[in-house]
Amino acid sequence: MLFMISLAWKKQRSVIGFCLIIVVTSILLNLTQLYFIPAVLKAVEDNISMIDLLAIILLFTGASLLLKAGNAYFASCSQVGRIEVRLMIGSMIQNKILTMSYPDMENQDVQRKMDKASMLVASNTAPTEVIWNTLMALIENGVEFLIFICLLGVLSPLLIWSVLGTTIISFFMRDYLNGWGFRHWEEEAEYSHRMNYLSDISRDYTIAKDVRVFGMQDWIEDMYHSTLRLYHRFMTKGERIYMAGDLIDVILTFMRNGIIYFFLISAVLKGEMSAPRFVLYFNTVNAFTSGITKIMSEFSYLRKQSRDISAIREFLDYPETFQMKTGIPISPDLTIPYQIELQDVSFHYPKSRRKILSHINLTIRPGEKLAVVGSNGAGKTTLIKLICGFLDPTEGKVLLNNVDIRAFNRQDYYRLFSAVFQNFSILDVTIAENITQDDENFDEDLMKQCIEKAGLTKRIESLPQGIETHIGKVFKDGINLSGGEMQRLMLARALYKNAPIIILDEPTAALDPIAEDAIYHKYNEFTDGRTSIFISHRLASTRFCDRIILITNGQIDEEGTHEDLISQNGNYAALFEIQSKYYRKGEESNEEECPPIFL
Questions:
Q1: Beta bridge partners of 532
Q2: Above 60 in pLDDT, residue 510?
Q3: Per mean pLDDT, which range of 4-8, 29-33, 168-172 is the poorest?
Q4: pLDDT higher at 148 or 154
Q5: At how many degrees (to 10) do helices 127-153 and 157-178 cross?
Q6: What pLDDT does 587 receive?
Q7: Looking at domain 340-424+502-593, does it have CATH number 3.40.50.300?
Q8: Where are the domains positioned within the chain?
Q9: 91-93-99 Cα angle (round to 5)
Q10: pTM
Q11: Inter-axis angle of helices 275-316 and 157-178, to 10 degrees?
Q12: What are the percentages of helix, strand and coil residues in the chain, rounded to 5?
C-alpha cells in the first residue's frame, strides 16, 4: 500500500488528490441520504408549511444530485491516473526483465515470480489498479464508522461493544481463511506458468509446421486440459475455504443485527424514541452494520492486494547475481587491445553436478580470429556464455586485460561484444530498427553502409517500403526473409554496433555448408583487426581462423591452425575427414539419384 502511495506521489499526484475528493463527496452523499427521510418526517411532525417542506425536499435532492455528479466526474478523472500508475509498474517489471542478470532468467523460481508480477499488472482489474478503490472505500467507511459510533454512542455503550466484538471475531476469521490463496501462491503460479507456456506455443507460428506434420494438436491440448484440471481442483479447494469464511461472517452478522434491532424496537415500544429518531437510528444501524462488513471486506481485500503488490516488489527487488548498476565502468574503444583469458575455468549449472566445462585454460589475444569447434553438446555455447559474461564460472576466472570480469559493470562489459547467436533475435519491427536497435536516434548513413557491406542493398531496395518494411506477422506489410537474408541482416546489425569483439555462435547451423562457408567468409571480411570468435560444428567453415580449438567433453582437446591440426592426425583430423566424406558422398548420391530435368 505504501509502495503504491509513494509511487503515485512521485509520479502521478493527481491520483491521490482525486481519491481524497471522491472520499469526501461519497461521505457527504451518504450523510445527505441518511438525514433525508428523518428531516422530512421531522418537518411533517412540526407542521411546517408545504412550501418549506418542498424546499427541504428540493435541498436534499439537489445536494444528492450534485454530489453524485461530482463523484462520478472525479472518479472518471482519476481513472486515467490510476491506469498510468499501473502501467508505470508494468514498465518497471519490463525493465527488470530486460536488464536482470542472465542466470536469473534461467532460474525457475525467478520465472515464477516474473509471471506472477506480470499477471498483477495485466488489466484494469489487476490489484495495482483496483487497490485505489479499496483504499477509498476503506477511508470512506472508516470515517463513516466514527460518525455512526458518535450517533449510536448516545444510546448504549454496550450496544457498541457487542457490535465491535462480533466484528473483530469476524475479521480475524475471514482474514485467516482469505490468506489461503497467498500462502499457496507458488502452486497457483506453477499452474499459470504451464498454461501460459502451452498457450504461447499454440500461437507460435514458427512451430506451426511441426504441429501439423507430427500431429501435436491433441498432445498439446491434452497437456493444457490436464493442467487446467489441476488448476480447477486447486481453485475449487480455495473457493470452499473462502465459502466457509463467508458462512462464519453471515452467522456473526445475524447475531450483531439481532442485538441492534432488539434494542431499537424496545426503545420505540417504551416510548423512549420518536418516529424521526427511530428512522434516523434505524438507517444509522443499517449503515453502521453494512459499513462494518464493508470495512472488514475492504481490509481483507487490501491485505490480499498488498500481498500481491508485495509479490511485485519481491520480483523488482530480487537481488542481482551480477553488478548490473555498480562495478568498474568500461567503454568500448576500437583503439584499445582487448585480451580475454580463461584461467582454470569450470562450470556446472545449479542443481547439477555434471561439469559442462572442466579446467579450461585459454587466452584470446587482441585481434585474433579464434574458432571453437566440436560436436553438439561439447560445451561450445557455454564457453561463449562465459566469455560474454552471461554466466560466471563455478571455478576459475574470466579476465579482461588481466581484470576479473566480475569486477566490471556487467552492462558496460556487454557493450564490448557484437554477437550473432544460433537462436538470434529478429523482432517484428522494421528492417532499420532490427539493424540499429533503435526507432529514432540512429545513423542512417552508417546503417546503409552496413547494409551494403552485408550484401542486402538490392533486396531492400526492391521492397516497397525499403528499410521501413516490417519483418514478421505483427504488421500488415510484414515480410519473411530467407535464411541467408536473415544472416546478412544479422551481419549488418553486428557491423552497425561496431564493437571491438565479434562473437558468432553457430548462427548458420540451419544453412547448407556452402551457404555457411560464404556467410562466415563475409563475416571474416569485415572483422579484420578485431577479436573474433567463430563457433561451428562444421570444421570446413572456420579454416581461415588464426587458431582453432577443438572442445571434447567440456575440455580443450586440441588447438592450432587448421593445417597444424590436420597434420597432427588427431581427433580434429578424423572429424574433418568424416565430415568431408559425408559431403562428398552427399554430392555423389545427388548426382546418381537425381535424374536430369528437361525443359
A1: 369, 502
A2: no
A3: 168-172
A4: 148
A5: 160
A6: 46
A7: yes
A8: 2-316, 340-424+502-593, 427-480
A9: 100
A10: 0.72
A11: 30
A12: 65, 10, 25
